[in-house]
Amino acid sequence: xxxxxxxxxxxxxxxxxxxxxxxxxxxxxxxxxxxxxxxxxxxxxxxxxxxxxxxxxxxxxxxxxxxxxxxxxxxxxxxxxxxxxxxxxxxxxxxxxxxxxxxxxxxxxxxxxxxxxxxxxxxxxxxxxxxxxxxxxxxxxxxxxxxxxxxxxxxxxxxxxxxxxxxxxxxxxxxxxxxxxxxxxxxxxxxxxxxxxxxxxxxxxxxxxxxxxxxxxxxxxxxxxxxxxxxxxxxxxxxxxxxxxxxxxxxxxxxxxxxxxxxxxxxxxxxxxxxxxxxxxxxxxxxxxxxxxxxxxxxxxxxxxxxxxxxxxxxxx
Length: 317
Fold this sequence. Notes:
The protein is an alpha/beta fold. A 7-stranded mixed β-sheet has the order 1-2-3-4-5-6-7. Strands 8-9-10-11-12 form a 5-stranded mixed β-sheet, with helices on one face. Helix 6 (198-209) runs antiparallel to helix 7 (226-248) and helix 7 crosses helix 9 (274-285). Strand 1 (2-7) and strand 2 form a beta hairpin. The chain has 10 helices and 12 strands. The protein has a single domain (2-316), classed as Ribonuclease Z/Hydroxyacylglutathione hydrolase-like (Metallo-beta-lactamase, Chain A, 4-Layer Sandwich), CATH 3.60.15.10. The protein has helices at 42-53, 76-80, 92-98, 102-110, 119-125, 198-209, 226-248, 253-259, 274-285, 296-316; strands at residues 2-7, 10-14, 25-28, 34-36, 62-64, 85-89, 140-142, 146-150, 153-159, 169-173, 178-186, 215-220. The protein is globular and about 60 Å long.
């Protein structure tokens, strides 16, 4: 974890992107303190808490979850136990409690028999310790945009979902020019989307770019600026267009992903996550609702096949 002061009294806690679960967080050291997102397990969230305590000794009064994915909120209890008010979009608790429970992740991580196609997922899970987690969803909820006043510092909470998930919220400090995006922005790493549409995600990125932030703290990856927001927009638009052609040609998700040339995006971390976006495009083109649940086992299996295909190509070349 790296703590960076991105503006006076505004901090980003960055984790090097090593794949699933290595997310970022933020702290606004004003008005009693506002934390943006916790981490996936209790040990890493306690380290996050201690890191923030090195610059803000008093426990933060508030924690906002940008969305419901566990790597941004399963550590909420660490801050709640110290008295923090937990904030989020009104859909966040519903989706958080509907996800697979921490106990399932414990069982997967400790299993001696890994289900076929899930080896990479289980390997990622084993880097975390999901024991002892009590899901602690937000209790102060917003249905749309809102503004917090932190002792004269305005903090705008912007509802930009459904994009990456149903309840995506970004945190904008207009006076400081700092934007916390949650997973609406994956920077220099290939995105994953759960609920939402391409149009909604692209619109969210364009809305945030129009703010002209000086510093953007993404949900995953290094610090960014407006070009990072527009770069992900361009990636999504490109993949959607390519996927449409392959869908019309009757190809499978895997066949489409094998044929899409990633160009500048090939250097992003975990490029095989392309499968998530092709799968989303196919579901949209098939007329499925934006909140259709992703078949995670199937998508992860297809990712593994794509990765193997790419490795075979490199071996031949």
